[in-house]
Design a protein that fits this description.
CATH topology of the largest domain: Rossmann fold
Number of strands: 7
Strand content: 15-25%
Shape: globular
CATH class of the largest domain: Alpha Beta
Bound molecules: adenosine-5'-triphosphate, magnesium ion
Mean pLDDT: 91
Largest sheet: 5 strands, antiparallel
Number of domains: 2
Order of helices and strands: EEHEEEHEHHHHEH
Length: 207
């Protein structure tokens, strides 16, 4: 496929434990273009580890190994940590399973979304604020101005996930990794949040 965005070949994630090595991911291979691909598996089967591996975010003592992780034809395994920081959140974004661990409790939502944008673009403070408000509107937050000035603990679960999605999409990544971004929500809110994400991903032609 000529328009492959990401191609993972023979990915392994291992954890050394007292009782020997645990293979969390065993030789998975897949590729993704500008399309939606789902990875399904029971709890503990290695979905989150697979997502984190793409961004090289496996924490010690975990170890990740692969033949290659090609993104836009370049092998991310050859990248330095500095180069990876430019990829994360900019070229490839990841919505984590639990947004509570991804938002900083001591900063307002608006500040965090603006920072995500300003880290990767030359947006001025004003442009960043404008962009953040538009993005909050795009994820159908009813009162963007108010939410902009809120702290994470002042949001409901569904709002928190929408904020996370806004933060991950504002840099216009080529690839979005969503790790059960709605599993903490009740079913009707899940459907809504997934529909919003689906729409934005399609409109922007992301993988
Ligand atoms: N620090 C660790 N030490 C040993 N094993 C670990 C460690 N962290 C994760 N694992 C193992 O890695 C495996 C894969 O975990 P992962 O979080 O990827 O599962 P998952 O498919 O995302 O599950 P869920 O659906 O519950 O989110 C699990 O079996 C887990 O026990
Ligand atoms: Mg998981």
């Amino acid at each position: 496929m000529s328009d492959t965005l990401l191609s993972v070949e023979d990915l392994w994630v291992r954890f050394p434990t007292r009782n020997g090595t645990v293979d969390a991911v065993r030789g998975i291979s897949f590729s993704v273009g500008r399309e939606r691909v789902g990875i399904v598996g029971e709890s503990g089967s290695g979905k989150s580890m697979t997502g984190r591996s793409i961004l090289r975010l496996i924490r010690s003592p975990g170890q990740m190994e692969a033949k290659s992780i090609l993104f836009n034809g370049e092998n991310l395994l050859d990248y330095s940590e500095k180069q990876m920081r430019k990829i994360r959140g900019h070229q490839i974004s990841m919505v984590m399973q639990d947004p509570k661990f991804s938002l900083n409790p001591v900063h307002t939502v608006g500040k965090q979304i603006c920072e995500a944008l300003r880290l990767h673009t030359k947006a001025s403070r004003r442009e960043a604020r404008q962009g953040a408000l538009e993005m909050l509107e795009a994820v159908q937050i009813r009162n963007p101005e108010r939410v902009f000035d809120s702290y994470p603990h002042e949001l409901s679960g569904g709002m928190g996930q929408r904020v996370m999605i806004a933060m991950m999409l504002i840099t216009d990544p080529k690839l979005l990794i969503a790790d059960e971004p709605t599993s903490a929500l009740d079913v009707t809110v899940q459907m809504k949040v997934l529909a919003i994400m689906d729409k934005l991903v399609q409109e922007r032609g992301m993988g």
